[in-house]
Amino acid sequence: MRAPSAFLALLLLALPAHAQPAPQAKAPPAAAKAVASRPVEKVFNAETFSLINGMQVVVIPNHRVPVVAQMVWYRVGGADEDRGQSGLAHFVEHLMFKGSEHVPPGEFSTRVKAMGGDDNAFTGQDFTGYHQKVTIEHLPEIMEMEADRMRGLLFPPDAVLSERNVVLEERRERTENDPRGYFGEQMKAMLFVNHPYGNPVGGWFNEVDALTRDNVMAFYKKWYTPNNAILVVSGDITAKELEPLANRTFGTIPARDVPERHWTKVPPMLALPQLVMQRPDIQQPTWQRLYRVPSLRQSRDDALALDVLQEIMDGGAATRLYKALAVDQKLASSIDLDYDPFAWDDGVLWISAVPVEGVSMDTLGKAIDAQLRLLIEKGVTDKEMEEARIRVRDTSVFARDSLMGPAMILGRILVTGGKLEDAEIWPSLIDKVTPAQVQDVAKRFLNPDDFARRPYVTGFMLPAAKPEAAP
Amino acid sequence: MTILKRFHAVLVLFCLAIAPPAEAREITAKGKVLDIQSVTSESGITAWLAEDHSLPIIALHFQFRESGAAYDPQDRQGLAQLASNTFDEGAGPYDSQTFQKLLTDNSIDLSFSSSRDVFGGRVKTLTRHKDLAFRLLQLALAEPRFDQDALDRMKAANIARIRSSLTDPDWMAARIANDLAFAGHPYARNAGGTISGLKAITPEDLKNFAATHFARDRLIVSVAGDITPGELKERLDTLFGKLPRKASAPLLADGTVKNGGTVALYKKDIPQTVMTVMQPGFGHLDPDYFAGQVMNFIFGGSGFGSRLMDEIREKRGLTYGIYSGFYELEHLKGFTISASFNNENAAQVLTLMRQEMKKMQTAKVTPEELKAAKSYIIGSLPLTMSSTESICNMLSDIQYNRWPIDFLDKRAALFNAVTAGDVQRAAKRLLQPDNLTTVLVGQPVNVKPTRTIDALPNVE
Fold this sequence. Notes:
The structure holds 2 protein chains of 2 kinds.
Chain A: H1 6-11, H2 22-26, H3 32-37, E1 47-50, E2 56-61, E3 67-74, H4 88-95, H5 107-114, E4 118-123, E5 128-135, H6 139-151, H7 157-176, H8 179-191, H9 205-209, H10 213-223, E6 229-235, H11 239-248, E7 274-279, E8 286-293, H12 300-314, H13 320-328, E9 332-340, E10 347-355, H14 361-378, H15 382-399, H16 404-415, H17 420-424, H18 426-431, H19 435-445, E11 456-463
Parallel strand pairs in A: 2-6, 7-11
Antiparallel strand pairs in A: 1-2, 3-5, 3-6, 4-5, 8-10, 8-11, 9-10
Helix pairs in contact in A: 4-7, 4-10, 12-19, 13-14, 14-19
Chain B: H1 3-18, E1 37-40, E2 46-51, E3 57-64, H2 79-86, H3 96-105, E4 109-114, E5 119-126, H4 130-142, H5 148-165, H6 169-181, H7 195-200, H8 203-213, E6 219-225, H9 229-240, E7 263-267, E8 272-280, H10 289-301, H11 307-314, E9 319-328, E10 333-342, H12 346-362, H13 367-379, H14 388-400, H15 407-416, H16 420-430, E11 437-442, E12 451-452
Parallel strand pairs in B: 2-6, 7-11, 7-12
Antiparallel strand pairs in B: 1-2, 3-5, 3-6, 4-5, 8-10, 8-11, 9-10
Helix pairs in contact in B: 1-6, 1-14, 4-9, 10-16, 11-12, 12-16
């Protein structure tokens, strides 16, 4: 069995920012790995319709048990913050639990609990999501509650101040208590120079510390509208049953204009960035690499090819990277390649590896680059293509075996500008990807020798140098 | 998997079993919360089955009681952990890569795991790959290869995991808490292994591990999904029919939480103090157990809405999260509280926490609190039955606790019977504000430790 890489969790974009009982609180955004790895076949048979105010609704019927998951996704996240106000989107997410007209401060979650339900929320670069799981008879009530906080928030001044301390504590806990947190944040900042994705979703400490009630009120007013939201309901219900409920709750909220996104771009970067973090508390060296690559919204064809590439390079312990680096060459004890296609702007592909004792960063990096060059020069085999296709297809069957999973996947695809139809037929789209396309995306986006056009960031976390070895 | 997650994994396991609430609503046609069958094979192997043909998916979980990391020899800490990593690294005619490729190419999810008490495994497969999936599990159990090459790889990965954890203050706090609270008992050892222990383990050790722990008298099997009782019987015999009747490994002695009153500090240059608190508790066979669960929910087990969370996060913004929970091991029962907070606020949080403990003991919970807790605990059961895997987990937990097969149907009544007086009694028994084993990692201000820890125990 492969040892899981602790690193990936720290690089993920979304913050499940609302704390929950211990195990969940630490978990990376539930579906991030699954979502990033592979969307699904005509799995969900989802139904969709729109409300009069422009809010999109997606229903994923699943009648196995009489329960239902509601998710509301807003098309706003950390990347939509004004310069100097990082962490604002995430702060607003927390304040969504601090009261609206009919739900007093702090009562949202306790009411859901009293129904025997669970709830939480998360913020990413491009989106903010709110979700609850309840037995079906409670659905109308949680829809009313969710609509209530879409209509308007109270922002009690004392609660705003005290919650700002909570989000600062969250930042300390997630990022500042462990050098891996800082490192992941800095890698992203380097990859997305001058782009809002370069700011951590949780915000830079000094900026969060300075956020005001006016800031959060203005941000909420600007972005939290029904026409900027998607309702996804998964479980024991049909579109026909949901429609009147949705009309009565979210449907009565007036639409408001939402600004278009104009994000600054990453300028041409001619120098190849390499980050080194060397500290006495680090005992285990780690190697990291981040690439900016197309997202699904930017190029469906490239995203499909990169998805297959990921499957072939890192689809299990018997696929390329692990086989080459860990089994054959014995240079790494773990290695991961992950691609996240669900972004409004550029997607990210990252590789992380842990060297075996005594193997240098240089040796490990060269061996990884050699695998990338091999892929670029020789491409992939038909057999590898076929194996990857089967895995994607099988995964889509497993994806049905969940209540939240499908809502998470479809919500993320839609909120980042993807199409429902694409998600439904993903496996057959994957079937059409050719070996030449996989080779081509490797050449265009992952070439270690083409950094002048496609800069990437490489980073090392290292133990402190031994005193005698110090310069 | 880090120790921290393992620490939590134990909590999850027990929380699911206890907190998984059963509402009296009808979910199956037979009027049961969940239709569970007990299936016994020709040779006498019993499994619980939740048959469901709505998806072409089968999940099987098995566990061996009293076979986990706590049984690792002192100089081989990490044996159970390493076993969990190597049983699927080649078996019978297949070397590691061939075995793994068969799993990958056929979308078979097969893995092993160990906790302090339990060694177990699970397989999840599409129906069309079931023959291969069961064949591979059977091979892994009966003819694991433990090839040196694969063993070395897994050792290296585990050692890297331990070294990576050394920047994680939660992991460090858990390590110290186990060492102090379980002092003198094998539970104090490092369940994830020590670097020297892992290095010392040989293929012989692993074979011996299987030979002494795997037996019918410690086996629990749970199955959910697309399989009939008739087919399951045959599978059970193939998988487990050749196991010896009784395991030869000796059982652990019972222990209690030690070092009450200790405030141990591990100084670390981080902005927060990470706190883990342990105190003596009781287990699921105790008459106050269900009252204890309700108490825990109200006190700190439920996240939002719990008293600890209300006072420390919601009212004062001092933490991102504070949680309490039962820490039940087979031979030692504890009750734990954990949180992290700005170093500056450490003294205030510790004071507030003790105040809340005392409040739980001196005054009864309100009727509203009691109602809300029961309502969640009872009403949330169906949420945990939305996947094949989660149903399988539930069957395992009920069996592990030796509860009856109709436990889910009785559960609501057990919780409904709990009174405010019961909750107060449970609070008096479970919360011991003056007898806490407290571990702090960080630089807490205005907190006087009774001892300082300079080196992490049982890591090297």
